[in-house]
Amino acid sequence: MAATRTTAACRSTLSVDCFVAKVVFENLSKNFPGGVRALDQFSLDVADGEFVVVVGPSGSGKSTLLRLVAGLEQATAGTILIGDRVVNDLAPRHRDVAMAFQHPALYPHLNVRENLAFPLRLRKLPRAEIDKRVNAVAEQLSIAPLLDRKPAAISGGERQRVALGRVLVREARCNLFDEPLAHLDRPLVEQLQTCLLELHRRRPTTTLFVTHDQQEALMLAQRVVVLAEGRIQQVAPPIEIYDHPANRFVAGFIGSPPMNFLEGQLIANEDRLHFVSGAIRIPLDGSRADQLRKRAGSLIVLGIRPQAICEVQSGSVTGDGHQITANVHISEVQGDRVFHRLRYRPTASGDSKSTPAKSTCSRKENSARAFYWIE
Length: 375
Description:
CATH topology of the largest domain: Rossmann fold
Strand order of the largest sheet: 6-7-8-3-9-10
Order of helices and strands: EEEHEEEHHHEHEHEEHHEEEHEEEEE
Mean pLDDT: 83
Helix content: 10-25%
Low-confidence stretches: 1-18, 348-367
Number of helices: 9
Shape: elongated
Oligomer: single chain
Number of strands: 18
Number of domains: 2
Distance between the termini: 29 Å
């Protein structure tokens, strides 16, 4: 996996005794003209040196959050602290943060070396220190051969690597990344993801990374913040986000293919509690039953990961397995995996009628892993 690869592009010579800072958001809100609320009562503590990924759909307020930290937007309400200092009224240059955007912002009249060195020259660092940092970052990002070229003479992916280098060379107290890998080819994305993890391990700068890609969020983050309509839905480590989503939005957004949802009712029968949806009847035991027993008779939604569904012979289910009948609507071959969209509608008689769904299984001897998704 990309998260475990170490590439030559990730060799680091940067010092580890850097000065970093916690970032604290207290009831932060941002309204735009026309009544648009981009952020609503956003509160979060980012620890010194922590790598936090903010993930959510388009329009959820992710980029606005970073722009508020950088000082490119003014908050409508609430406070932002970097270290122990409130920075709401500080100019961007006084906040000591570095930011990479979705589209690389380079000076077209400067070559790559000069673009990388520019923020260091503004800070009046010694020439030897500037050269040391520029050369180190160029090696880490595999852009050393490009140092004497202008931005117009390099590819889009190379320009984005230069933009990332301008962030890393700063050695700022906080790094901000606004979907910097969104438009790169997959092999380069995986290389740079690995490089960012390796660099953060060696030099743990406080980092806020924004993405719409939930797989990227799970791979990079020490903690994931799931955002929707300007509100935090859940904050937790990646495994907890995946295994214990806080609500239906998180459950449906995190995971690929997405989670299946079945609507049904909790039925108490003697000493057992069952989830019932048409012909599906699933007994609930242990702590789950204890938590849900007070809701017996209520309508609830059952979430099933596609990885938990497998094809079986009729009548062969034993133990904790539960069988339904559905029709394969569409099959999508993706290398070693096949996604099957199913059509299923629960009825009392157990017949399946038209409603879409999806699933997956692992390569056996000449077969791909199948994943089943029920929509």
